[in-house]
Known about the structure:
Shape: globular
CATH class of the largest domain: Alpha Beta
Oligomer: single chain
Largest sheet: 5 strands, parallel
Number of domains: 2
Amino acid sequence: MKFSQKKLKKYDKQNMLSLLENFPHHCYEGYNFETPEIPAKFKKIVFTGMGGSGISGEIMKILIEEISCTPVSVIKDYFLPEYVDTETLVIVESYSGNTEETLSAYKVAKEKKSIILCISSNGEIEKRCEEDKTPIIKIPPGMPPRCALGYLFFPVYKLFVNMKILPELKKDFFEKLENWKSEFIPNNKNNLAMEIAEKIYKKISLIYSENRFYPGILRWKTQIAENSKSFSFINVFPEMNHNEIMSFSFPEWFVKKLVILFVISELENDRIKKRIEITENIVKLRINEILKIKLKGDTILEKLLYLIILGDWISYYLAILNKVDPTEIKEINILKEELKKEG
Length: 343
């Protein structure tokens, strides 16, 4: 079998499987963390964080902008924009606490006298928060940052619930996460994650969605990169219709390797639905494999979490097909060590 227990153990040497299985519990625990009060009033929100720590801000931006007039930005860099000021809430997320870009952004936020909240498991961020008396949400250590999304996202969500910015989650929310996870675990034979992993194996994935599901397809891209050690590409409607739709000709060897995945739900407006339909009719003349991912859930957040859970499991099974350890990140570690030498 392609995904036998023996094969999973052979390549999943650091047991990422257990982290994927426990993701709904991480979300539940994160939502029930105590969160600090933010006494000062703010007019803008900025999230800063890289990689697995940065996806939380991407999701939050979509949710807040859907129902609030408060502008939200996600900054993935060493610096913060000039508009960040004393009326800006800067949420600094670094799972390890040692991400150099995020540490730099924290320093800039302090210089600008912004309102700061940090989220980390330990490291330099925690030390600076203690020294500066900056509020921090301390989350459990000991996992790859990309597997800590439940702890990085849900305490912040609860914070905004307490501040009346976001709605309280429904009682069955975490049950849905658990049910969706159960659809993708190895002993479930009717397994969409396995099916998709097999279809994109030795192929190049193009993943398209409407703008509101961008955080989910971004998560697919980053998980396929880190877990599966594979390329994938993403874009959103309607933007891709104004340029990328012209790309399906050359190089011919590349086009033959493509698998297109359209992320769809009942939430798209009629024009976006029509664009997806027309785009599919155009590209199917040149693309052999086109898949449609129908999102489950009732709200944007639920649909995003379904998309993320499915994508995480796909990247895991694709890693097994590629015969690689999904946890190992050799090249990232080499890069960090080389940067340290430069000071």
